[in-house]
Each structure stands twice: as C-alpha cells, then as structure tokens.
Amino acid sequence: MRRALAVLLVPLVLFGCAERKPAGDAPGLVALASGPSAGTAASSAPAGTPAAAASALASASAPSPPAPPRLYVRARSLAIHADPSLAGKWIGTLAAGDSVDLRDEPPRTARGCATVRAVVPRGWACADGDAATLDAGDTVWLALRAHAPDYTSPWPYSYGESRGARRHRSLPDLETPAWPASLLEPGAAIAPRSTVAWLDEVDSGGATWLRASDMSFLRKDRISAFEQVPFHGVRLGQGSGEAQLPLAFFKRAPHAKYRRDADHRLLATEESWPRLAWIGLTGQTEKHGRSMYWETREDGVWIDARDAAIIAPDASAVPQGPHPTWIEVAALQGWLVAYEGDAAVYATMISAGKLGAARPEADEAGGDAHQPPATTPIGTFRIREKLRTATLQSDLDDGTEFVHAEVPWSQRFYDKYLLHTAYWHDQWGEGHSGGCVNLSPVDARWLFEWTEPKVPQGWHAVRTLDGDEAPATLVVIHP
To answer: Which end of the chain is more exposed for a tag (fewer CB within 10 A), N or C?
Structure first.
C-alpha cells in the first residue's frame, strides 16, 4: 500500500514531507572577545624586569569579566523572531535543553510575553513562563541536559518502530522532575508503523523502558529497533588518488565485473562489487544490444549500467548566475552531487519519490502549485529552513496516519519537501519516499553542516525569509 507524505503545520516550526516538533540540541557556547587587559601597556617589558613582574601580577589578580547572561530552554520548541514584538514568521528555534547567550539589549515586552530577550547572534525570544529561564541551576533544564541527544553523531537518538506502544509520563519507582506541559507529546497511544526516538533505557517494575525524546517512557518490548544504516557517499577532489566524477554506485544487489574475452566481447566474471559499493569511471562507454557498459578505473574492468547509479557531470544542470554552493539531484537515477562553484565535492545515492519526479502543476484556480502525490518536485529551489530534527507525519492510502519521530538533519527546499535522513530504510538509489529526498544519516549530517544558511551555534533550527540576503544553497532537481 502506498504511503503519502503530507506536512503538518504547527506553530513555531515544522514543515517538510510532514514535520512536527523539533527536538533538543547541544548547547552552543559563544566565545567571548577579550579586550585589552590592565597589563597590556606593559606587555612589551623584558621578562624579569619590575615592570614585567608588575604586569604579570596585575594580570593574574584581575577579575575575569562576567559571563554574559544566557537563556535556558525548557519548552519543546521556543521561537526566535526578527522583531522584539515577536510578530511575523520565526527565523529560528531553540529546543528543550538548549541554551544561548543573550545580547546586551534591554528586555522588551510583547503580546503574550512579559519578558522578551535578545539572543545571540540575532533575533528575540520570549523568556518567561515555563518555556525558558535565566537560571543556570534550574532543575528541569539540568535534567534535560543530562538526557540530551548527541548531535555529534549522525544518529542523535536511537530509533525504532512502534508495535502498539504507549507513552507513560512517569514510572512508580523512578523520580523525575515536574516536566512543563509543553515538553510532552499529546496523547498516549503511538500508532503502529510510527517510529520513536529514545535517549536511554531504564529498568522499572520488572520491565525495561525507553526514555523517549519528550521524556515519556515506552516499554522496550513494544518497540522494534532499527539497525543503524552505515552507507554513505564519497568526498571528491581533483588531486591524484582522489575520487572524481564520473563514478558509479551499485544498488539493489552485488554487481558483476565485466572483462573482455579473446574475441573482445564483454562478459560477466565471477568477481563482483557488493551492493552500495562504488567505483570510479573513465567516461568511456560502449553499447552492446540494449545494455550500456562503462569502463571503470580498475584495469580492464567494465560495468553494466543497469542497476547502477551512474554519476556523470551534466552541464545543463548548472544553475545560472552566482552559485557558491549548490546540489544536483537526479531523482529517477537516485543520486546527488554537492558542488562548490564548478567543483564537485561530494557524491552519494539518495531515495526520491516512489512514483517518480514531476514539475509542480499550476493550480487552475490561481492557488499554489500542486505536486503530484509521491513524486519529487523538479526545478531549481533554495534551502529555506534547516532543522536538526523534525517529526514528520505520513499517511497511507486508507487514511491511516503515522509519524517518523525526530528525523535528523532536515532541510526544506520547496513547500513541504525536504532533504532529510531516512533512518528506517536503506533503499539507496531507488524511489522509496513520499516525495522528499531521503538520505542516509551520515550523508544527511554532512550536507546539513555544509549547506547554507548555517544554523547559529546553540540554535535548533534556522529559516530564511523572503527578501533575506543571507546565502542559501541551491537545489537543482531533474529526472
């Protein structure tokens, strides 16, 4: 039965093939620029002189400048706005357990918020109520930090699929803080096929429980854990010994190596490359019957292009105008290349729409363009939003709804469509998505850190608005 992905728009964030709430992020500590110290004027005095000794003593005894105040987030998601009125669209978000430096601006007030504070490096956030605090010793925030996701890993959480799991807000023999209501997911039941994200395991009442991303508890025996998908792409260069285009990845199954026989025919040998492996190509091709063969950089070895993702430069895909960073996606062939200007720097396989690719169709009534179901949009787009995690809502043809929890490294480029991790499958090179561009966790994290706009240190998400002059990576999608 086909799955269709649809975005669930929720205040503050969440867009994508169907996004809901973003999750926590490791705090970002902003380095302080240090001004001249009391001993600077004497710093040129020779060592051992009275002036040098006095300077060293003054430097050692001078009090350190006070650290700037910080905002500590307790809510599941806290919006950052460009204006202290907190009006208009958000430009970023902070998540539970995040903390960020505050700028030296007087507090403001806004409708629904008694204290609005200026955050680093830009924007304003509400700093009152249960959502946030200025107290570094807040017990709720400290407990959130103790159970923070690991954003140094492609897998910030452990992940699995619900088999009729239910959320439990507490366990009888485990002490937990009084979590703010905004932290907890609504509803106890987790629909089958929905995925869950968890931080660690605890034993209670003779059973093992998983601590979920919203700090609720799930019985471990009601979750089927996913194995971590190790596949990833390859970095490209121009130097000797570095991987270069063209190259081929092998999808679906191991791929035979072809060599010429005495009559110069290309025949399959007993040697093969494993599924998801790659090999460099020379660019030389030969067609025999209905098959196209490519010469590899392995001496005397050729491949049959069938069931291979052949990644070769396509001059027609190069965008017009300046393009410091851009991404080329071949939706039907199942590959992606990242470029810095004209230089290809990374190549990998992806999984695009299960029903192919199509251009958005104009609405006859003058409304927004419509994208055919389960297809990846064709065109040139820009990265508009980046979220370290986003929960995506999906549905089957019969209307059954389920969610993919805390999907890492999500980047929205058009309407509800994203580049994002798919931790629940490894069908790389094949159409398997509801229209988004699925990436392996390793590839998704690499792209997230590479693309523009950058997520400011300590933030969970960033968004560019119409008219912004900030750089944004182009995404060029063709069949």
So the answer is: N
Give the residue among 81, 42, 88 at the shortest CA–CA distance from 62: 42
Give the number of other CB atoms < 10 A from CB of residue 23: 27
| pLDDT confidence of residue 205 | 92
CB atoms near residue 120 (< 10 Å): 18
Q: Which fold has domain 246-311?
A: SH3 type barrels. (2.30.30)
- For residues 247 and 65, which has the higher predicted lDDT (pLDDT)? 247
CATH architecture of the domain with residue range 3-23+313-478: Beta Barrel (2.40)
> Is residue 214 within 8 Å of 184, Cβ to Cβ?
yes
The Cα–Cα gap between 282 and 301 comes to: 11
Which of these, 410, 463, 452, lies nearest to 433 by C-alpha position? 410
Residue 469's pLDDT is what?
79
Amino acid at 7: V
Please, which pLDDT band fits residue 171 given cuts at 50, 70 and 90? very high
| pLDDT average, residue stretch 439-448 | 98
Two structure tokens written together for 362: 């104009």
- Three-class HEC string of 103-137: CCCCCEEECCEEEEEEECCCCEEECCCCCEECCCC
Query: What are the domain boundaries of the chain?
Result: 3-23+313-478, 70-146, 158-225, 246-311
Mean pLDDT of 214-224: 97
Identify whether the C-beta of residue 211 lies closer than 8 Å to the C-beta of residue 202.
Answer: yes
pLDDT, average across residues 82-88? 95
Which DSSP category does 44 fall into?
Answer: T
The whole-number average pLDDT for the span 414-441 is 96
Q: Write the CB contacts of 95 (distance below 8 Å, at least 6 apart in sequence).
A: 22, 23, 24, 25, 73, 76, 77, 78, 388, 389, 460
